[in-house]
Amino acid sequence: MTYRSNPRSGVPWRQDHYTADDGMPDGVVGDATGGAFARTVGSGDVSTVAAGVYRKKGCRFRLEIPQTITTTSSGSAQTWLTAIKFDPRPAAVGDPITLVHGLKAAVEALAVDGVEIDPIEEFTRPGSGAVPAPTVASDRRVWVGDNVRARSLTHIRSTVSLGTVAVVDGGQAWATSGVAANTVERFLRTLNNNIPVWQSLDSPPAGPLDPVGAIETDTDSGQYELLPRYQLLPGWTRIHFRVKRTSGAFTGGGSGTNWDLLDIPNPLARPGGKRELLATSQGMAAPSVKVIVRASGLIQAVIGAGDSRSFVEFAGSFPR
After folding, report:
1. C-alpha–C-alpha distance, residues 128 and 123, integer Å
2. Measured at the alpha carbon of residue 246, what is the angle toward residues 281 and 229, in degrees to the nearest 5?
3. Is 316 within 8 Å of 173 (Cβ atoms)?
4. Rounded to whole angstroms, how far apart are CA atoms 67 and 98?
5. CA-to-CA distance for 276 and 302, rounded, in angstroms?
6. How far apart (Å, rounded) are the C-alpha atoms in residues 197 and 305?
7. Whole-model pTM?
8. How many other C-beta atoms are found inside a 10 Å radius of the C-beta of residue 30?
């Protein structure tokens, strides 16, 4: 068999190994890329489920060799399900934790007498003459990781497992500058378009900033494109933008020249009074531009006398 789910290799299962639930969550473990138990469509009705490790009831089920699964044609579309099956009954044949695959209704019907079915993926096979396609699949994997605490997400290794929850103490800027102090935010390591990313659990994006004056977001000159946006944190607002003049440049005229850049449309995200912050411009390492956020939500840039810049960039937070 391609399965090995013993607590230790070569040690037979005992009933207490899989009936003593330790209360920890069940799911895929040790997967940093999203490749564990992922299905690859092959030729015709043949697919392959990748190797992986699944935590269930305190024990670990390891699929050591990729598993081949097949579907069959029908006159109409049918939904298929790949899942982890947990069978705690003493009379169960073989390992109590196995990978199962079949028509969705048939697999779900196995969940009787204490048997549990944890879905991995379901997909719909079109009618006769067609084959399964990834575009009709629904990924139902749950990833389980550790809890970590760090000063910045950059302090956590990039190969951390999906499902990891990171508590960032001190704030986490969206770029290399502007780290806010005295903020705590939780992030979940998950997939976004099959790319591992950190997703905030406390402050989902609240919306874009509105351009003000003769500026636009940076979309050319070989620079990355970035939509100006803001987030709400407990007691703080985070803003992130890169803007440029529609023509010419921002020309410095001393502290009395303020360029209107953006507006924070949500009144709840605006500061109670004027906030003065430092930003960078055109890739400069040192802070070189002052950003003013007014109580009205207006964001302005102050360029030093005699200075001329095309772009202004800022990433950071301010208290409300």
Report:
1. 15
2. 60
3. yes
4. 11
5. 10
6. 41
7. 0.59
8. 17
